[in-house]
Amino acid sequence: MERSEQRSIAEALILASPEPIPLARLASLIPSCKPAAARALVDELNAEYGMRGRAFEIWEVAGGFQLRTLPAFADYVQASQPERPLRLSQAALETLAVVAYRQPVTRAEVEHVRGVDAGAVLRTLLERHLVRIAGHREVPGRPLLYATSRRFLEVFGLARIEDLPTLRDLAELAPVGPEATRPTLESVDSASGAARPAERSADEDDAEAFDDQAERFDDEAELFDDDEDSSDESH
């Protein structure tokens, strides 16, 4: 089979898939194709799209490949929609940031960081498929553990959870000045690879760092519907 034909098959499979198609699955559906060769086909397709000035490209998100419109066209895609669904609330974004950086985490641990009840917010995130149940903590009562889902990675354009910016990165991006003081970041979260303060003397330090990421999630959430619409439009 000629490479141009393999490339066309890869394009058709990615276009037709309702969710990101994993590399191994893509390779298995293309005749005489290994995973490394399938990735090369995707790179060739993106190079071709760029050369021709197409309005879309293939993204690697949530452990797979998906065709999406370019961010430059987000305003036009958004304007084409008659109405926008409700966005995530600030409380939901803050809770999502805690789960993302502390996962797997219990409801009590989320509430310890945010200082408020998190039950309703966690249910909302579960309903939006941004958070999933990841088992039980093996302590008395065996509370549920929460972690981010593949949908979370898809919405925020991440190939894997390790691609999240670390809290150290966020601290470096914060404004300089007495009012923007942040705790020194030294330790690394074993679950997510995110840096965390080695010592915490107050819960507000913890919450402040997570609030910074929640604001960044808020910016990404503005494209939440655009990502869904772009994916549907591409299909």
Structural features, described:
This protein is α+β, with helices and mostly antiparallel strands and 235 residues long. Helix content is 50%, strand content 14%. Strands 3-5-4 form a 3-stranded antiparallel sheet. Strands 1-2 form a two-stranded antiparallel ribbon. The C terminus is likely disordered.
Put the structure in a nutshell.
The chain is an alpha+beta fold and 235 residues long. It has two domains: 3-69, Arc Repressor Mutant, subunit A; 90-225, Arc Repressor Mutant, subunit A. The chain is 50% helix and 14% strand.
List keywords for this structure.
235 residues; alpha+beta; Arc Repressor Mutant, subunit A; 2 domains; 3-stranded antiparallel sheet; 11 helices; 7 strands; disordered C terminus
Total strand count, please? 7
Radius of gyration (CA) equals 20 Å
Enter the CATH topology name of the largest domain.
Arc Repressor Mutant, subunit A
With strands numbered from the N-terminus, the spatial order across the biggest sheet is 3-5-4
Please outline the major beta sheet: 3 strands, antiparallel
The helix fraction, in percent, is 40-55%
* Uncertain stretches: 176-207, 222-235
- CA(first)-CA(last) distance: 26 Å
Q: What would you call the shape?
A: elongated
